[in-house]
Amino acid sequence: MKKIRVGLIGTGGVMGYNHLPGYRVCDNCEITAICDINPETLRTVGEKLNVPEKNRFLKYEDLMDSGLVDIVDIATPDNVHCEIAEAAVRRGIPFSTEKPMGMNYKEVKSVCDHAAEKNLPGMVCFTWHYRPYIRKMHDLMKNGLVGQVYHVYIRCIKDSGLWEGRRLEWRFDEKQSASGVMGDLSSHMFDIARFLGQEFEAVSADAGIFVKERRELNSEKMVPVTTWDWCNVLAKMRGGANATFQISRTTKYISDWIQVEVYGDKGRLYYEWLGGQQKLEIQDEKGKIERIIPDAAYDAVQSRAFLNISQGIRDEMDATLENALKCQAVLDAAYRSVKEGRWVTIAEIEKEAE
Questions:
Q1: pTM of the full structure
Q2: Within a domain: residue 333?
Q3: Do 212 and 223 meet the contact criterion of CB atoms below 8 Å apart?
Q4: What tens digit of pLDDT does each residue of 82-138 get?
Q5: 160 alpha-carbon distance from chain centroid
Q6: Torsion angle of alpha carbons 73, 133, 204, 79, nearest 10°?
Q7: Which of 113, 169, 240, 248 could cross-link with 230 by S-S, CB 3.0 to 4.6 Å?
């Protein structure tokens, strides 16, 4: 069987720890070309992956035009996701891109529309679609376990913004990452809410910066941080539920804590990730609590999903371009809410892009 030839665009940390492990367990693909704007990173990763020097590129256009790849996986700073995805669409190359898909709803919609016109497969890396506990929650919600949803509480807090010596990488620069932690972390949490069947109607948000200066990447000069460290978002959902999101990367002593809690008229669902340990609980109408461990049917691999999508094989739980567009509308609404101090509807964002 001919293997799918994968081109990697952006070979930094996210590609290394979140994408590559998945490709390594898939026997129907091979990494045939890589691209990165940093020559040293390109060399190091190329040697690690045994990619020949002639198959390493500094420009993504050269990789796409090389004839070496069937699909491309994009893990670059946010500001060039859509630019690179659009280039893939023009060439008829299926693509996967890191979240958030773009800097704003308008540019994401443009790429999604063009991909749809060409019937070109695409995917966004909403990682939680491929984690067993959240996939199990998806099915429990779909089957009406909690009944009419009243409340959704989601928290994602980390200490990553407080790592000693962390410099002004692209995540802290609004020109490369428009909303900072909102796009970095809230996008996942907004998507989880949607994955559990809750569509957004309007949001009200607040956000701020605690670590206001960082050293430049290549010097000791201190420069201003221009993206948010934290955000709190209230949401009105279309089904009548309300949702609350607490997001921060400046929570000292807590390295990685995620909670998803759903209350309905028939029960409660609670998921927690804390330092790599997970638990999922169901509480019924009588108050009885049952601990759930997903069976093997819920195991999934994000990179394998992309390989399947590129071949026209889809799963109802896949993170599609539609998911990317819907989430981007929520991000834009939350961003505007912080800037203008008011509730912003999703319809307002969508209408402006018509």
A1: 0.96
A2: yes
A3: no
A4: 999 999 999 999 999 999 999 999 999 999 999 999 999 999 999 999 999 999 999
A5: 17
A6: -10
A7: 248
Same domain, 204 and 244: yes
Burial zone of 238 (CB within 10 Å; 0-12 exposed, 13-18 middle, 19+ buried) = exposed
Are 250 and 162 in contact, with CB atoms under 8 Å apart?
Answer: yes
In this structure, are residues 263 and 150 in contact, taking their beta carbons and an 8 Å threshold? yes
Tens digit of each residue's pLDDT (9 = 90 or more) over 302-319? 999 999 999 999 999 999
Residues facing residue 231 across a β-bridge: 207, 247
Tell me the C-alpha distance between 25 and 304, whole Å: 8
Distance CA 168, CA 218 (A): 9
DSSP string, 204-250: EEEEE-SS-EEE-TTSS-EEE--S-SEEEEEEEETTS-EEEEEEES-
- Supply 237's token pair: 């959902």
Number of domains in the chain: 2
Closest CA to 126 of 212, 203, 188: 188
